[in-house]
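User: Hello, can you help with two protein structures?

Assistant: Certainly.
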Amino acid sequence: MRASFILAFGPVALALALAAVACAASGDDKDETTPRPDADGGETVIPDGGTLEADAAEEAAVVDGPKCSQAGWCVTSLPDPDLLMKDIWPLSGRALSVAESPTLGVKVLEWTDAEAKWRYIDDGTQNESGLGRFVGKLWMPNENELYYGVSPGYVVHGTRPVPPATAWSWTRHRLANSSTSVDPDDGNPSYWRLNNGSRYPALGVWGTSRDDVYAWFKNTIFHWTSLDGGAPEWVAEYVASDTSGPMEQLHILGAAGTSADDVWFSGGRAGSFAGCAILVRKTAAGYKRVADGAIGSFNMPCTARAGVPLIGGIDGWLTDIQALAPNELVALKGARDVVRISADEDSYSVALAPVPTTAASAGLNSLSVEGGNLWLGGMGVVLRGTGVFDGGAYEVSTVSLTGAPLGRPIYQVRGTSNTNLWAIGVRYALHKTTP
């Protein structure tokens, strides 16, 4: 495996800004969330996501001051104050999102430019007894269909109504390896690389088209398939079960691709305080593990496993991924390194574009490529990368209205272009419509 190590460090201002974010995120003052009773009246659950109360200056800016940051990130009004916006799928003129709330449970929302507001479109069934402890990744094949994962291992499918109907229609299917474990975080593993152990859902949906849809849960990849002419169902096609010991786990965390014969799944091999990147590829020949690593002893780096390439750079899971072209994708590794992976028949090459080390404490957790720019989101920060694999650099794209560190997680940055970008997180959804 050929790997190129490309250092793409931004200006001094980037390091100073990220240092400020890290200081804000590591403060001792922690605001409490209000526990949400489960639908069955049992235990309570407090979604992960840092502080829920914004700084007084930021709140005042939202009410009395400008609605957009210096970089053009504009506040949108949410229907409730305690929403943890977890994932978003932007479209032209609208966007759909899934959120968690300590009081409302899992919610599904839609934004339209025409109305300039968010509204709920779910029917509440995602919070029935035993469901809704956390939400997984969402995907849309078109503006009239939505898929997302919800604990403890379900895929929810929504379809937009045909007028004059107004309510979306929803169905729910349980994945075959859903656990009856009493562990509320089953399928929602703690990622020690992100914000001191934030949860990163090993649950989600992605597809190449409305007729070719995949789901993943924990260590298993499913495909929506009809067997022997019967009704479609979620069929397990790949299971990553080759652990090296009882304390080790394998997780599937994301998917991307360009066609039915070019699908990639990212993930991680997890130990108590370490993690290695996993990459699985599906082609016409079937599934193949194309990257993996062996977890070393405490504080030791991952090492190569026999017959499988090791992705270099900082250790950690391969989380957010996006296809750039057939046989090529970009991914976020170890909450800090951006990697570009290219396939040429049976060989693979990897180029690294590390984010400056001061960003490690901020914990990057999302990635998106739009209009030639690379966008990264983390703890209170959005970074914009330009030509990072060709000697370019990263810079801070200011999201705070006051200029002070936001101090709250940005779970996802995603868009359709550099003039239709979203950055979502704890109690906010920011929309950027300027280049």
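That covers the first. Now for the second protein you mentioned:
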Amino acid sequence: MLESPNFALRLEALFTVTALRAALWLLPFRWWRGRLALILNRPPAPAPGDMAPSFLAARAVESVSRFVPNASCLVQALALRRMLDRRGTVCDLRLGVTRSKRGDFEAHAWIESGGRILIGAGPAARFKPLAGDPSKQVGSDHSRA
């Protein structure tokens, strides 16, 4: 079991999610603002070839995030982006906003690659993306602000 690729992937995901959760808690917003601006202003990712490794990494992040307190959609998206970057897979971090039925502000983060959402797909359609070309983003025809 310790030799299995899924175990290694989950271990990497657990470490990455935990480290990013701690960093979001410890580092000031001004530090993150600069990094997120660089991430969000990249050109769109080209379509990758084989998506299977990306989906496996996404499932690993989702599965271990249940065990990391406050592993929000942002933590999960940043963790998956970090893991995919290490593998040379280009992906896009998407941040979106909307208002709830009660008028409360809500935000969501998700990862796309090759026009497909890898993590955070469930609620993504409800959110209006903050950056990038909305016509190229999954769920853009459902965006509401």
